[in-house]
Structure formats: C-alpha cells, structure tokens
Design a protein that fits this description.
Strand content: 15-25%
CATH class of the largest domain: Mainly Alpha
Structural class: alpha+beta
Helix content: 40-55%
Distance between the termini: 69 Å
CATH architecture of the largest domain: Orthogonal Bundle
CATH superfamily of the largest domain: Trigger factor, C-terminal domain
Oligomer: single chain
Number of helices: 13
Shape: elongated
CATH topology of the largest domain: Trigger factor, domain 2
Number of domains: 3
Length: 433
C-alpha cells in the first residue's frame, strides 16, 4: 500500500493511498481465517470450518471488511507519518475519493484535527470592570416596590379620581353591534389600572373616573384576539366604579426588615438596605456582562488569535445556516432555489464569514476553558436544562431527551462553558465603585 500525506496546516490534512489488490486479498484471507476459528458454520464443527466454506458463505461481506481494514491501516499509517495523535482528530475522517479498479483502490481521506492555539497573555486583553454604583434612592425604591407587592389593598375614602396604579372595583358589561356578548359581563371585578389586563384603551378610559361614576367606554378588540367572533370588532362597555383601592403605604422600619429577611433574627433597616443594594448590583452587573462586556471580550479574542480552522466543520456550520435560512423562506422562494443550483451555492457562500467566526470562537473558548480549568460536566448540563424547562412549565425529562436526540447537548454545554469562562475572566478584573 503506497501512502502520501499532506499536512495542510495545524487543523487540516490529507492522506492519499493506493491500496493494492494484494493488500485486499491478504486482508480477506486473514479475516476468513479468524471467522473459521470463531464462527459456527452449518455442517462443520466450530474451529474446523474450511477457509473455502467461509469465503463462500460470507462472500461480499468479507470484501467489505477487508477494504475497511485497509482504510483503518492507511489512516493509522498516515497519522503516524504526520505525527498526529489519534485523540486530536475531530469528527470522522472524510473519504473524498474511493475509486476501485482491477489493481486495487485509489483513496483520498481528509482529516481534521484540533487546531493549535497560542493564547499568550490573554488575561491582559480583559478590560477592567467597574462595579456599578447603586445610590440610596434606587435602594429605597426597590424596597418600596418589593414591600408594596405584598402590601394589602385598602379602600380610598377621599373623593378623588382614579389614577394609574390604583385598583378599581367595577361592574361592566360589553356589547358588540348593540348586543351583549358571552363573557363580557362581571360585577365587583378588581382591575389594577396600568396592568394591561384589559383590551388596549379600556384602562386608560377608566382612569379619571370617581367612585359611583358610570361611563360607556369605546374600544376595539385586537385582530389577534382569541375569540374569532370578537377579533377586530369595535365594542362598547358600560362601566360603573364601586370603589377605589390602593396599596397600603409602605413604612421602611425594622419590622419591615424582619418580614423581608426571615432568615435573619437580627434584621434591621441597615441590613435590609445592604442586601437590596447587593441584589441591585448583581442585577446591574448581569445586564452589563451579558449585553456589553461578554460580547465585546469574545470579539476581542476572535480578532486577536490566528487559528487554522478545520474546513469540514466550517462547511457544516455553513450548511446549518443555509438550512435555517431555507426554513424561513416562502415556498415560492424555495422553488426558485430548487431550479438554480448556482444561486444556492452563492447563498451558501454568504454564510462563510459568520461560520468561520463561530467555529473560531468555539476553539478559543475550548482553549481558554482548559487554561482556566473551567468544566461543565454532564450532571450540571442536565440540571441546567431541567431547571430552565421547569421555569417554562415544560416536562424536564422530555426536553432533555429532545435535545439529546437532536444533537443539541454539545452546543448547550459549550455555551455554558463560554459563559463561565468569560465571567471568570471578567470577575478577576472587577474594581469597586
């Protein structure tokens, strides 16, 4: 077997080989002898089967196994010649040529390996992170918001108009084309103004009414309203305000602190403000990290590092992007593409730059994760998917199984690793406000 190797770069290589007829025949003989020793063939005792009987029974399968063995041998030999470790391969080797003739088989195998990445002083590329400054007014506002959400409603005795934030106890009845419709009537209904519970425009017209007022409100049901009979229809609602309620006034004192910090026996206003301030800082940092710092840092790394990219992975990424685009196209657009191969090819090529960036980012994150000892094991991956599924009201086991069967788990795991790596690098550069 004659082998020629070509190590294109640190991520791509080719092996060309001429597998002779003699090599295939020798492999057939070897495999047949092994089968003769181990297999049970009808009419013969185990281990006593003649080679000729094995060849007759297994025929074409022997040839296929012999060719497969030759391919494995040439791959092993080629990797050894190029000093490429088998565990550095990415994906399965791609057989791009397999031409058989009477003399044997001409083969070309394309392989991809994990590219070499020299990170250097990557920590120096991470900017200093300023911890957000949270003022006392923001802390007080959050405490009042949290306390108000749990505060009871109290009746407003003064003679005043309803304002946004109030709760109105109302009777109403709705009419379309002068006729009352099913589900359009209620008595003593509690409506918090500004909540968006009702049809757009309804709450705005209740604002300004007083206790005892009656009014006819004109609105139009949205086009996408659930009931087909009402969707897009103009309607009139007869409304009467029976009472006005508002949240009980919040008093920030030690008693409130004890209610809001049940795990702390010595809770007081100062502790409550400190805990709320920490929460606000965490929320602000999370927004800053996700919307600004992490994307910018990833872009810095992608621009800074020069990496050889495994070509077949880039091609796979382009194919996925093309398929996603196709799912968003109309049937007419798809039909046009089916009849124009060159247009499909041109469209696919438009995804190359983004595909290269995505693949490059993946390898950078992988290298950084190794340098920073960041891992996400299978248990953590499952826990994250289960938790998010429960938050969405979905069956966690079913969601996990769907991701598993669709091949999404590696991508989710890599996204988690990227998030942890970037967070760790940024956390190391935090300075107090």
């Amino acid at each position: 077997m004659q082998i020629t190797t070509n190590k294109i770069d640190s991520a791509n290589a080719k092996i060309n080989a001429a597998i002779t007829r003699g090599t295939i025949d020798a492999n057939i003989e070897s495999i047949a002898k092994q089968i003769a020793r181990e297999a049970k063939v009808a009419g013969f005792r185990k281990g006593k089967t003649p080679i000729s009987a094995v060849k007759k029974q297994y025929g074409e399968r022997l040839v296929q196994d012999a060719e497969a063995q030759a391919l494995r041998d040439l791959l092993t030999a080629g990797l050894k010649e190029m000093a490429i470790a088998a565990d550095s391969l990415i994906g399965e080797p791609n057989i791009t040529k397999f031409e058989k003739d009477d003399n044997g088989i001409n083969v070309e195998v394309v392989i991809a390996t994990r590219p070499a990445i020299t990170l250097g002083d990557y920590a120096a590329m991470v900017p200093e992170v300023s911890k957000p400054a949270i003022d006392d007014a923001a802390v007080t506002a959050r405490i009042e918001e949290l306390a108000s959400a749990q505060a009871p409603l109290v009746n407003v005795d003064e003679d005043r108009a309803l304002v946004s934030g109030d709760t109105a106890l109302i009777d109403f009845e709705g009419f379309v084309d002068g006729e009352a419709f099913e589900g359009g009537k209620a008595e003593g209904f509690s409506l918090r103004l500004g909540s968006g519970q009702f049809i757009p425009g309804f709450e705005d017209q209740v604002i300004g009414m007083k206790k005892g007022d009656e009014k006819t409100i004109d609105v139009t049901f949205p086009e996408n309203y659930g009931g087909a009979k009402l969707a897009g229809k103009p309607a009139q609602f007869k409304v009467k305000v029976n009472a006005i309620q508002m949240k009980e006034a919040v008093v920030i004192n030690d008693e409130l602190a004890k209610k809001m910090l049940p795990g702390y026996d010595d809770a007081n206003v100062a502790m409550l403000k400190e805990k709320v301030k920490e929460q606000l800082e965490s929320e602000a940092m999370s927004v800053k990290y996700n919307d600004e710092l992490k994307p910018a840092l990833m872009e810095t790394f992608v621009s800074a590092f020069a990496i050889d990219l495994p070509e077949f992975i880039v091609e796979q990424e382009m194919d996925m992007a093309l398929n996603k685009k196709a799912r968003e196209m109309s049937e007419a657009e798809l039909e046009e593409l089916r009849n124009d191969a060159e247009k499909v090819k041109a469209m696919r090529e438009t995804f190359r730059d983004d595909a290269c960036r995505a693949v490059k980012a993946t390898f950078i994150v992988d290298a950084l994760a190794k340098a920073e000892n960041v891992v996400v094991n299978e248990q953590e991956l499952m826990q994250t998917i289960y938790f998010e599924a429960m938050q969405m009201g979905q069956d966690p086991a079913a969601v996990y199984k769907h991701y598993q069967e669709s091949g999404y788990l590696p991508a989710i795991q890599m996204a988690m690793i990227e998030d942890r790596v970037l967070s760790k690098l940024l956390n190391d550069k935090i300075k107090e406000a």
